[in-house]
Every structure is written in C-alpha cells, then in structure tokens.
Amino acid sequence: MEEGNADRVARLIESIEQDLRSLRQLVFGDNLPAPRPQQHFAAEESSEDQAIEGVFDGEKMLDYAGKAYQVSANYASKSKLVEGDPLKLYVTHDGKYFYKQLGPVPRRSVPAIVKAEGNHYVLEAEDGNTYGVLTASVTYYMSMYNLREGDRVMILLPSEGPAHWGVIDNVL
After folding, report:
1. How much is the pLDDT for 163?
2. Which domains does the chain have, with CATH numbers?
3. Where are the beta strands (DSSP E) in the chain?
4. Pair 41, 77: CB distance under 8 Å
5. For a Cys-Cys bond, which of 87, 90, 101, 137 suits 44, CB 3.0-4.6 Å?
C-alpha cells in the first residue's frame, strides 16, 4: 500500500471508530457498556502461523490432502456450518486453533423430526433421508427452546450433492 493511501486508511479507521463511540454515547448515554474484547485475525495470520484451507464434512474440516482437523461442535453449531462449507484453519505458533468460514455453500431448508438413536441424535427429514446432527446443536435447542425428541425442526443442508449431516436452523 502506498504511504499516502496508508495515511488515508488510518484516518478513515479513526473516523469510523469516533463515529462508533459517538453512536454508543447517543444510544446508551451514561450507561455505556464496557467495550467487548475483539478477536483480531491479523495476529493469527502472522508469518509464524500456519493457515490450512479445507471443507467442513459435518463434524470436522478436511484439508485438500484429506487430513482431518477437529472443529469444535459448539462453533460448528453456532455458525450453522453445513457439509461443503469452506473453512480456513489458523494454527498459531503456540498451538491454538482458530477457524474462519470462507463462505457458505448454497443451502436448502427441509423440515425434519429429531430422533434419538442410542447415545446420539438423527434428523428424519421430509425429503425421505435421515441425517446425522451434532449433539451440541440438539442440546442447545433443548435447553434454549425446550426441544424434545419427536419435535419438528427446520434443517439446513447443502443445495448440491448428497449430505450425511443436517444442521438445525430453528424449531417449528
């Protein structure tokens, strides 16, 4: 970036930050909440860190060589990752993992019924297929929305190709 452009970018960022401070003051007045800590990927993308690209398979990320990397079930559920979503994994020099979703694949929504099978759950969809579902997703909806086995949910699936895993989008 040219030096003149770098100065302009810095001024624009400072202006945006000032506008946000003014907006917070206007909205919250004297009850201004403490700013939340921010996650910055810049540090995670340093030359000392490793970045690996791959695809979410419903449970984990597979890099393009086929190596599997564990994805937190809570992150996958909260982000509503579906099979085929491209991810980038940043491994910091001290061994921490940070995922970044590069963009969602096209999705379709299908109604389904939540069923228990042994010690895990499945989604019996109205499209005639049964899909796996992350237990973390089911237990979240159970605790927050009183979801029970046998309840109807709307699930997300990739629009293209076969899928083995569904993601709960909401309770019907």
Report:
1. 95
2. 41-101 (no CATH), 107-171 (2.40.50.140)
3. 50-56, 60-63, 68-70, 86-91, 97-101, 107-117, 120-125, 130-132, 152-158, 167-171
4. no
5. 90
Rounded Cα gap, residues 61 and 70, in angstroms: 6
- pTM exceeds cut of 0.85: no
**Burial class (CB within 10 angstroms; exposed 0-12, middle 13-18, buried 19+) of 167:** buried
SS (H, E, C) 97-128: EEEEECCCCCEEEEEEEEEEECCEEEEEECCC
Give the CA radius of gyration of the chain: 21
Closest to 99 (Cα-Cα) out of 144, 54, 134: 54
Q: Look up residue 164 and give its DSSP letter.
A: S
Q: Which residues are registered as beta bridge partners of 62?
A: 55, 68
Nearest to 63, CA basis, from 75, 51, 76, 79: 51
Tell me what pLDDT residue 95 has.
85
The CA distance from 146 to 116, in Å, is 15
The strand pairing partners of 130, in sequence order, are 124
Are 158 and 83 spatial neighbours (Cβ–Cβ below 8 Å)?
A: yes
